[in-house]
Amino acid sequence: MRIHPPSVGHRRNRDGGIHNLAAVSVIAAHGLAASTNAAVTNNWINWTAPASYGSSATLNSGSYSYSTTATGTLLMPDSSTVYVRLTGEVVSPTAYGVNPTGGGYCGPSGFSSNGTTISNFWTQVPGSGTTNPDQSDGSAFLSSNVTTLPTTGPGAGDHIGLIGSGSATQTIEFFSDSGFSTPVAVQNLLILVASLGSPPTQASWTFNQDFDILSDNSGTQFSGLTKTTPSAGAYVLNGNEGAGTIQFTGSFTSFSWTVSAAEAWASWNLGGTNVPAPSAVPGAGLAGLATLGLAGVARRRRR
């Protein structure tokens, strides 16, 4: 996100081997077909707006208010309800004097539960287009695993603002009960990311869980989102005004990430899909092997 003065609201192998490979190709093809043909279901979290924003931090000689926690419910694609607790930084919807229902970004954070957001936030985020000149249509968030955005129903337009000056580390925990006492493992989680970094300045979020980038706004005037893995257990999302969607691999009861350096703000939201992340699709890694196997069969038939 481009940094403006705090007072300005903005946004900114022989026979046996060959037969075995052929069999592998059938298994791989069926696995890929199943993942491709399945009807995609996307659900998005319904956040409960914090009661107050009692903490404050400073960025570029200006101050902003934030809450240190938020909770919400996420209806998973299997119809189970997961209770979510965020500990970190939830920037006030009116930080920097922004009108929370003014359109566009409508404030760093926004919640349908108390009317501080617009329902179509995610379809009009500036910089979220995938073709020029239209940069604000939300297409950067869509992919074969994400076919709908949170624009209707509970949680429509919900988003969490993150600056990182007050609290750099964000932790999300998942529970099976509304009392947040029984952790539950989840998988196929998504995060929508809006305005990570700015054109001249890269911003980075370092996650403790691996992820795939499903889609982004690369190929436009912005550089999109990139992933680096500088060390074991560190999975870094980078952006220069990046917008897009990431999907986590594996199953876990919580995950966290750390902001590399504070910026004017980025916004994000949490969701789920019934389709595995690309790197987790069974058989996907065998595609090259399957091709070699079929090529071997063809060569033997020509001899």
Protein described:
The protein is mainly β. The protein has one domain. Helices cover 13% and strands 34% of the residues. It contains two helices and 17 strands. It has helices at residues 14-37, 287-302; strands spanning 42-44, 46-48, 55-59, 62-75, 81-91, 160-162, 169-175, 186-187, 189-196, 203-207, 211-216, 225-231, 234-239, 242-248, 251-252, 254-259, 266-273. The strands form three sheets. Strands 2, 3, 4, 5, 7, 10, 12, 13 and 16 form a nine-stranded antiparallel sheet that branches. The termini are far apart. Mean pLDDT is 83; it is low at 2-37 and 285-303.
Structural class: mainly beta
- Number of helical stretches of at least 4 residues: 2
**pLDDT below 50 for ≥5 consecutive residues: which ranges?**
2-37, 285-303
What percent of residues adopt helix (DSSP H or I)? 10-25%
**How many individual β-strands?**
17
Strand content: 25-35%
Biggest pleated-sheet summary: 9 strands, antiparallel
Mean pLDDT: 83
Number of domains: 1
Rg, please? Answer: 21 Å
SSE succession: HEEEEEEEEEEEEEEEEEH
Backbone shape: globular
Instruction: Give the termini separation.
Output: 62 Å
